[in-house]
Design a protein that fits this description.
- It comes from Bifidobacterium callitrichos DSM 23973.
- Strands 3, 4, 5, 6, 7 and 8 form a six-stranded antiparallel β-sheet that branches.
- Helix 3 packs across helix 4 (46-59) and helix 5 (94-105) runs antiparallel to helix 6.
- This protein has three domains: 4-88, Winged helix-like DNA-binding domain superfamily/Winged helix DNA-binding domain (Arc Repressor Mutant, subunit A, Orthogonal Bundle); 147-243; 269-347, 2-Layer Sandwich (Alpha-Beta Plaits), CATH 3.30.70.
- With 348 residues, it is an alpha+beta fold.
- 34% of the residues lie in helices and 22% in strands.
- The model has no long low-confidence stretch (mean pLDDT 87).
Length: 348
Amino acid sequence: MERDSVRKGGSRSEIIIGILELLDENTDREHGVTAAWLADQLGITVKTIRGHLYALREMRPFGRKVDRIERGDLKDAESPDPRPGWYIEPVFDTAQMRLLADGAALSRSDGEYIQDLVAKIYAFAGRSDQLGIRGPLMTPKHYNREFLNNIERLNDAIAHERSIRFHYCTYDVSGELVPRLGEDGRPREYAADPYDLRYKNEKYYLICHLQPYDNLAYLHVERIRDLMVDGNDHTLDRSFDSFTDESGAPIDLTAFMDERPYPSPGPAIPVRLRVEGGLEPVFDWFPDAQATQVGDSVYEVTVKATPWSTIWWALQYTNSGVRITVLEPESIRAELRRAGHILLERYE
């Protein structure tokens, strides 16, 4: 906003916008500004500024608190130059800022784009003077240049219930992404009903109904290319609500993903385990696990998971300080025995 318009006798709304802009640009929880400074910047009386500041304190514009920082509030300040005065609460608090910035840094996206995004997150948290992420964020070597555009278009398709078509990629010998081929030797086109985007195990997954199959599918978003979104709303072949769990109840997507530490097909089933040494590997991966202590650092545990995700999870702890034994079902025990024989033959 041109602040000269305020100096020339701007309207009440222009004055309020001017105050909010100055607070947003110059304050945070440890740095305030005086009513006199605001009055000087906007060319109006201190009395007028104070009246608007008290009104803004009651209004909480955009859900953000406007208030005064008193000198006593700064006795434990972390900043080397704390300053009392009026301030506006940042969009994000420090914890939210760090979570968002670290999540962005882990997304394996374009390095320059993520660096800019992290800088904006820090600015919204009133921490634009902090570096945030040490060193440059590099773009992954085999990065899909369509990734960011696909995220935007998939989000739109999910919001408007629009069906999608795309090519799905694998890697060639040089590590470059290339489309999977159909029986005719040409890139195979896939059709799907998109439902949600979820981040897990350092991968962005699209949760969808991949036609013509009956189950929910999980696709790596970075492997999607040539994405086409139907131009009309509500064009899904099948809605998410049409999927139910084994009891016929609607699927809780968060619980659904928790039952799949590694996204894998098939229904989740109860799995009984004997865990010796500690429960970190259990609750790090299965937040709803049921554990009973049966000895000194020995536990009987029940989790609900798909068979393949349980197998992959158990195998990764083979050489750890925690000993995990699947007690039932027998089908998972048999598959783990088979994996052991394969490894023994391969590395004997």
